[in-house]
Backbone:
């Protein structure tokens, strides 16, 4: 299995997320690597995690909070999560217009 795992740099290139963001998302429990070397702390990801990393990048680009991203990656029903995010965006727009 270890041979099929991807280095953090490869996942960064394939997903568009910087290595620092991947480290952050690991620490935040959003995108945890498939394997972490206990001696070096080196992170390796399963090939299927590239799609998840791309999704994280897209959701964060539109300002989705980490808790919501984490919920979606865990398999939450996307409808209510996306509706709540849209409501937050609309509330922010309303507040900006009011100012």
Residues:
């Amino acid at each position: 299995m270890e041979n099929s795992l991807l280095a953090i740099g490869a996942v960064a290139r394939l997903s568009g997320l910087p290595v620092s963001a991947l480290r952050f998302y690991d620490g935040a429990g959003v995108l945890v690597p498939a394997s972490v070397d206990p001696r070096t702390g080196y992170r390796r990801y399963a090939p299927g995690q590239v799609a998840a990393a791309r999704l994280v990048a897209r959701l964060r680009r539109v300002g989705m909070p980490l808790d919501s991203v984490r919920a979606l990656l865990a398999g939450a029903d996307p409808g209510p999560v996306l509706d709540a995010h849209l409501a937050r965006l609309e509330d922010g727009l309303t507040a900006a217009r009011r100012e």
Q: What stands out?
A: The mean pLDDT is 94. The radius of gyration is 16 Å. The first helix runs from residue 8 to 15. Residues 28 and 86 are 23 Å apart (CA to CA).
